[in-house]
Amino acid sequence: MLVNEEIKLDYSDVLIRPKRSTMSSRGEVNLERTHNFLWSKKKWTGIPIMSSNMDTVGTPAMHKVLSKYKLITCPAKHHLKKDQGKFKKGKANICWFGGIDDINNLAKTASGFIGLDVANGYTIKFVDAVKKLRDKCPDATIAAGNVVTADMTQELILAGADIVKVGIGPGSVCTTRIKTGIGYPQLSAVIECADAAHGLDAHIIADGGCVNSGDIVKAFAAGADFVMLGGMLAGHDECDGKVENGVMKFYGMASESAMSRHGNHNAYRGVEGKTVEVEYRGKADDTIKDILSGIRSACTYVGATRLKTLSKCTTFVRVNNTHNTIFGTE
Ligand code: 5GP
Predict the structure, then answer these.
(1) Which of 231, 228, 212 is CA-nearest to residue 172?
(2) Would the pLDDT of 41 be above 90?
């Protein structure tokens, strides 16, 4: 047994120091990025924020709104088998995720990115699945995860992933850290995995743990090429679910709610997610505008005219993690 004494950080453990800037308005900031992918050799341009492939937020209606802003939708897995046609708009802005058993279905998807998404991306079986998907789809842009360390980021890239999905345990409805004790503070995971991926000309998605636009900014500043959101997009008109007494249900894909809905129960598979009620927030459009304006504002504070340069312009300062508290009441 070893103990790593190095401090590892979450989004709430840091702030970004403001810097002198020649910019005069948020309107000058360009949030679009162009990514060139290592194996597929394809190019993508857009705002690199994605909806999580969860039942509640990975919906056709969410895709309609997100694609308006050139954001990416990851449809919930159940759409892969039967409803691909419902995701009509901006097909380049879709990333279809599936599990190891979905390789054939993924190989048949005609548009966007494809990806393999499992709770634990550390198994040999998973690495073999990534290799298999790459063999079947040499020209596809492939994402794979989840992992949280540089070694496994490199392994997945060498197995054929263009993009590695990073995050174990930070999700708002995830209980992995509580149930298993496994996890890694998300800001450090993003910094370390981005460094490993960029060294190989590959990319990463920072998946989970963002609770406000400041966290999304920190993820990009830490080197994330894409940021994936679940909880921040929950509670909107475009989500799957009903509004009851001013709240909507939002559940993890390893929760009892998801397992019952999709019949995924088996003897070995425990619940590692929860169901929560989130406040109903109306149209996703308003939330997206608010998120994008937060990121633009952050870029002006550090003098980054493009999202691309945000990371270079960033100096994080460590803080005690009470800075999210409003007047000490939360
Ligand atoms: P959020 O943005 O809500 O903080 O995190 C969303 C991410 O949480 C998802 O993209 C996915 O990686 C993760 N996630 C979703 N459902 C579950 C679950 O039931 N259990 C765990 N461990 N993680 C989940």
Answers:
(1) 231
(2) yes
